[in-house]
Amino acid sequence: MSEGAAKKEEKPRKFQAIRGTRDLLPPETALWNRVEQIAHEVFATFGFGEIRLPIVEQTELFRRSVGIDTDIVSKEMFTFPENFREQLDLRRDYLAMRARELRNQLPAKDAMKSFISFTSDFLDLAHSTFSRGQIPQTAENKDSLDQIHSRILSWEPKVKQKEFQCTEQDWLLFLSDIVMLANRLEIGGLISLRPEATASVCRAYIEHGMQQLPQPVKLYYMGPMFRRERPQKGRYRQFYQIGAEVLDHVRPAETILGEVDKELRRDAVIDAEVIEMLMTFFGKCGLQGTTVYINSIGHNAPNCRRGYVEKLRAELTRIKDKLGPDSQRRIDANPLRVLDSKLESEQPYIERLPRIADHLCDECKAHYAAVKRELDQRDVKYQENWRLVRGLDYYMRTTFEIIAPGLGSQNAVCGGGRYDGLVELLGGRPTKGIGFAIGEDRLILSLQEVDKRSSDTGVQSPLATHQSPPLYIAWMGERAYATALGAAKTLRNAGFRVELPPVEQKFGTALGRAVQLRAKYALILGDNEVTSGEWTLKTLADGTQRKVSEQQLIAELKKM
Ligand code: HAM
């Protein structure tokens, strides 16, 4: 085969979405929009405002908040160095390598010149990233840059001189100084695609001084999250969450003296209201058959969770040989996570483990009781689940999860809980927090199941998003085209969906296309119609048609 023919045969490469990511297409996207619209409406009625967050954050933010031993941080994050960091890093490595090579040579003018010029380029890049805040703008970094600069300034004239002279000792000192100063430069950390958004909300709360606003601050968000998990139904590497967080600063002890009960009640009311809002949202979406599980995991103190964890660890160590390898590994690092295990053979042993409810301190016990009372008052149905510990480190006291039907093994459609102390851990003032995140992909899957079932039973789903059928404008002739353009504009402005064919078609073809597009009506515009000003409106289902004037058209359509 000739080269030309081979090239012709060569098929262009086809691209596919990356494993665990997917395209969301119409008409399904209409359902996504509807769900998001309901979230905007419902959350607003509870006084929440929307926050839009970046998709990348410093990796350190997630390490500190979600926890370095969690699956999310230890295995699932998409993490990479920032571009400029990589460049600086590479140049710094090259600088050190060149210095090592030059150390073994007698000072030669050309080699010195090229080393100084490379150092000068390195300094330019470091300066520009420093001034843009892309590397930490600390006093130490500024000092390192200034010192490199002054070394270059003192050596540049030396190598330019005709009669160049320097001792080997000076030269070695210069090389090691430059390498030492470059290494002292703190270039910054890694960045990660966000695996969740609670940490970002807390970061933003601190960064924008939201502690100064009237408390509590109520925020919600929606958007993509990224976790490198094994993809399956309801589990993706890019998935979408709709979440909400309530942040409430901790009042100084002296101002709540004698009001501990009131404070406890305030927290419990906030917890219950967040869950009530969630269930209101699910209700408005028409999600059916959900179960709300709640638990309290106490707080991190010896007379509360820490004491319980020690007991649990001791008991797990005693029955270690009955547990699978995952649970065995968790005994040391995070014994609470053993309670999450779904492994069949472990279940009888886990069921006999000590339970946290028996080890809560008095305050956590009172808080949990108050949350349940508040939920009862709001008529929110729930089940207690002592094994609900959640997979992120920041939780304390209330944890909750909601499961929905039609999802198979990935049936948690929402998870949340209280995280007092997280803002402080990230450098803010003592602050309490509670929130949740709904897995939007799973919510949509479950709604589609409900929809399927309700269409089997003939009951209309509350989320039915059948778009209104289009109105098809069948036009022929240039004069009719101008009229059709005007009519399309008027109709679209009035909110009608209009299909205007881009080229002239015979009326028969045009009407066939209108039927294909599931249009209910076609507006027929030919020379006759344009001349008489009387347009033909055809009902496609029965073929009947009538004459309407331009002025009557919208009123007629609204009536129909
Ligand atoms: P989470 O339990 O890790 O909590 O995630 C919340 C929900 O996101 C899950 O219940 C699930 O519906 C959905 N989800 C998680 N991973 C995936 C995945 N790979 N594919 C599809 N859906 C997924 C959090 O993210 C916390 N930030 C929630 C929170 C907010 N707690 C307090 N405030």
Helices and strands, with pairings:
Blueprint: H1 3-9, H2 28-45, E1 49-50, E2 56-58, H3 59-65, H4 71-76, E3 79-80, H5 83-103, H6 109-131, H7 139-160, H8 168-184, E4 191-193, H9 198-207, E5 217-226, E6 238-249, H10 260-285, E7 291-296, H11 305-318, H12 325-333, H13 347-351, H14 362-377, E8 383-384, E9 396-403, E10 412-418, H15 422-425, E11 431-439, H16 440-457, E12 471-475, H17 478-493, E13 498-499, H18 507-516, E14 521-525, H19 527-532, E15 534-539, E16 545-549, H20 550-559
Parallel strand pairs: 1-5, 7-8, 12-13, 12-14
Antiparallel strand pairs: 2-4, 3-4, 5-6, 6-11, 7-9, 9-10, 10-11, 14-15, 15-16
The structure holds histidyl-adenosine monophosphate (HAM).
Histidyl-adenosine monophosphate is lined by residues 196, 198, 227, 229, 234-236, 239, 241, 243, 245, 392, 412-417, 435-437, 439, 441-442.
